[in-house]
């Protein structure tokens, strides 16, 4: 006998993972119309340099990403290890993520990699799963020059880097050097802000 509940949950999980994959590929490819299709009409999101309505983010991010690409910058999000909790028309989707970024700063090409967890609230709108809220929980980052023979003192600024949280110092420094000041609400792994985000997500899932 077919377990209808398990079958429905299996279908929902597949649709949610496809939604998340679509949102990431569309973001990295600059397909902003396709990215907008992934988000709820009332969606909000937080990134390392933005907090607010998703619809406003698409407009700002499209300009910034295209400007960066014209100058040789690239980004790629690698997402895996999905954990999805479903309750009716609501779900929490959590996954591991590594963001690879290449940028030219002070005339030097730099690669920055950032490890994080993506925590998302997913809700059905017009019978389709959509991203309703998104947090990024940052774990650590790393920076290297593309050319390993470049002298460290030609790009590395210890004093400038010291003002950022240790888990996210290279990522935020890179952003600010490119005209993207750090968002004040960045969530770091092991912080009170992470606990608050998880509690808010669980409460939302349970309809409280």
Low-confidence stretches: none
Helix share bin = 25-40%
Helix and strand composition category:
alpha/beta
Output the CATH class name of one domain: Alpha Beta
Strand content: 35-45%
CATH architecture of one domain: Roll
Major sheet attributes: 7 strands, mixed
Could you describe the 3D structure shown?
The chain contains 6 helices and 7 strands; from the N terminus they run H-H-E-E-H-E-E-E-E-H-H-E-H. The radius of gyration is 18 Å and the shape is elongated. The chain starts with a helix and ends with a helix. The chain has a domain at 4-101 and 117-140 and 183-205: Nuclear Transport Factor 2, Chain: A (Roll), CATH 3.10.450.50. It has helices at residues 4-29, 32-37, 54-70, 158-161, 169-177, 192-205; strands at residues 39-46, 51-53, 74-87, 90-105, 108-125, 128-145, 187-188. Strand 4 and strand 5 (108-125) form a beta hairpin. Strands 1, 2, 3, 4, 5, 6 and 7 form a 7-stranded mixed β-sheet that branches. The chain is an alpha/beta fold. The mean pLDDT is 92. 37% of the residues lie in helices and 38% in strands.
């Amino acid at each position: 006998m077919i377990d209808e509940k398990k079958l429905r949950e299996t279908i929902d999980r597949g649709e949610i993972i496809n939604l998340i994959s679509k949102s990431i590929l569309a973001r990295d490819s600059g397909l902003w119309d396709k990215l907008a299709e992934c988000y709820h009409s009332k969606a909000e999101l937080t990134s390392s340099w933005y907090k607010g309505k998703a619809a406003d983010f698409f407009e700002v991010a499209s300009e910034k990403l295209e400007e960066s690409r014209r100058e040789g910058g690239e980004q790629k999000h690698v997402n895996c290890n999905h954990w999805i909790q479903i309750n009716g028309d609501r779900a929490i989707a959590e996954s591991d993520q590594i963001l690879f970024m290449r940028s030219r700063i002070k005339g030097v090409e730099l690669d920055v990699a950032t490890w994080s967890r993506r925590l998302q609230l997913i809700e059905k709108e017009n019978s389709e799963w959509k991203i309703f809220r998104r947090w990024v929980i940052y774990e650590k980052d790393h920076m290297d020059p593309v050319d390993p023979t470049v002298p460290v003192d030609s790009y590395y600024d210890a004093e400038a880097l010291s003002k950022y949280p240790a888990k996210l110092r290279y990522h935020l420094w890179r952003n600010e050097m490119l005209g993207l000041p750090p968002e004040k609400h960045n969530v770091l792994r092991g912080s009170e802000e992470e606990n608050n985000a998880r509690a808010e997500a669980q409460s939302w899932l349970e309809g409280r």
